[in-house]
Amino acid sequence: MKLIGSHSPTRSTFLKISFFNVENENFLFLADSGRHRFAAEEILRIGSDNIAARVFTYRELAAATGSFSSENLLGEGGFGRVYKGQLKVTNEVVAVKQLDRKGLQGNREFLVEVLMLSLLHHPKLVKLLGYCADGNHRILVYEYMPLGSLEQHLLDIKPNAKPLDWHTRMKIAAGAAKGLEYLHEIATPPVIYRDFKASNILLDEEYNPKLSDFGLAKVGPVGDKSHVSTRVMGTYGYCAPEHAITGQLTKMSDVYSFGVVLLELITGRRAIDLNRPKREQHLVHWVCQIKMVTFHALLRA
Ligand SMILES: Nc1ncnc2c1ncn2[C@@H]1O[C@H](COP(=O)(O)OP(=O)(O)OP(=O)(O)O)[C@@H](O)[C@H]1O
Ligand SMILES: [Mg+2]
């Protein structure tokens, strides 16, 4: 098991797992490992003709974010820091994600994100406005989501903040499910998202959710195949056990992660919370125990 990410260890989202199993990349130009280092140039070459996303210079994005000033920092994930910015030419307010993960994996996630979000369009997916690949810089520019992530409203809430009401929780669950449904049932070929979790569900000013972070997404099985084989990646606590064990990825792996987020929405607890007593640390296990206790209590009644 390999941990990937640069979060503070107190945050559950730090726990990204990667078991190395069979590698079967869907993007042909990424499949040949000997060509990996040329992938960025390749996608940019393909992109300049076929990808609608705008190409930004580093200078433009530095100007938009006050030179990536800490005052504009919105958050930080395993991929790098995210800043609020305002584009000088159009005055658009945007979110700018600066990748700090060096090497193959970071480059690959950047390319997959640009490709996926350029091809997929749905009201429940965050919009990629453009990207910057000046020199060694790898930066993604998204529509700005004013209420940040579901994680901030559900799991990282400040002591005096009002918790999300039930209606809003269900609205978020239903909207995020629509995003997944689009990826699984409408996109052709289908896409397996692989990173469904509270921090990747972003919220607009009316708590409408949008899925973000497609760097790990995979084109799903086509024809009569039931799964794709891949190394296991995702976030510990949200990852379907059968996927972790076999490396076989199906749409159901996303459905499992959706179930975990639904439990988080219902209970207000994190998928993994090491600050709780041992038997309550893993949300799914805890809920299963409750179910058994309730079941036995019902039998005794
Ligand atoms: N488009 C956006 N609009 C507004 N805020 C955003 C946007 N994208 C990301 N953020 C903020 O930046 C934070 C970090 O996002 P990021 O996707 O880099 O990391 P993460 O989802 O927390 O972790 P991981 O890297 O494991 O996915 C988010 O939790 C959110 O608060
Ligand atoms: Mg994210």
From TrEMBL:
Subcellular location: Cell membrane
GO molecular function, one term: protein serine/threonine kinase activity
Record-level GO cellular component terms: plasma membrane
Gene3D superfamilies documented for this protein: Phosphorylase Kinase, domain 1, Transferase(Phosphotransferase) domain 1
PROSITE patterns, sorted: PROTEIN_KINASE_ATP, PROTEIN_KINASE_DOM, PROTEIN_KINASE_ST
Pfam families: Pkinase
Keywords: ATP-binding, Cell membrane, Kinase, Membrane, Nucleotide-binding, Serine/threonine-protein kinase, Transferase
Family: Belongs to the protein kinase superfamily.
Name the UniProt record assigns to this protein: STYKc
Provenance organism: Musa troglodytarum
Record lineage: Eukaryota, Viridiplantae, Streptophyta, Embryophyta, Tracheophyta
